[in-house]
Amino acid sequence: MNRKTVALICVVWAAYVAGASSTACNDALSSCPRGYLYNPHSMSCFKISTQEKNWDDAKAACQSVGDRLAVFDSLETISWAKHMRKTHQDWIPYIDNYLWIGGRDFHGRWQWEGNIRKDIVVADWREDQPDNHKGAPQDCIGLFGKSGELQWNDVTCSSALINIIFIKLCDIFKLLPSDGLQGFLAESVRGEITSSLFGLS
Ligand SMILES: [Ca+2]
């Protein structure tokens, strides 16, 4: 395979508020970092990194600055990214590139990487993918850019691609009460847990 330009699409996941509200998370929602595009469907911010890296190095590069590889876990976000690719000046130069995102085959299950891996439920595989082409272990998800509408292809993880970086700005963790113990919500802004909010009855 020719060396693909791998764009690291950095996504800033501004928040999963999940019905709760908090000052820090609301503040995070109000602004994406410079150079990131806000995705209203997932309340997150995305950016393409033009550095060419294999999947593991792309993931590490994201983590080193508190970001993540992009998570496209809804039809709305998948459609949004395709629209941005066609219309936004910062993304158009990479219209024909492969782009890493944060999905991977972990021990036979396609999942989004992260502290807590989540099974990929909504997918946008290109026709005949995933295929482990010619028997090669293709365990990482690349967005097929060239005339491919950014549909997904399983790609050898060692390939050097540009990437979509996903920065998770804000997240809400709900710890459910059990056996009389009080639950609580904690919030995380760009990976740093900043506070506990309140108890749940
Ligand atoms: Ca493939």
Automatic annotation (TrEMBL):
The keyword Signal applies. SMART domains: CLECT. Residues 1-22 form the signal peptide. The keyword Signal applies. Keywords: Signal. It comes from Bugula neritina. Residues 41-158 form the C-type lectin domain. PROSITE patterns: C_TYPE_LECTIN_2 (PS50041), PROKAR_LIPOPROTEIN (PS51257). It comes from the Eukaryota. This is C-type lectin domain-containing protein. InterPro entries: C-type_lectin-like, C-type_lectin-like/link_sf, Ca-Dep_Lectins_ImmuneDev, CTDL_fold. Pfam families: Lectin_C.
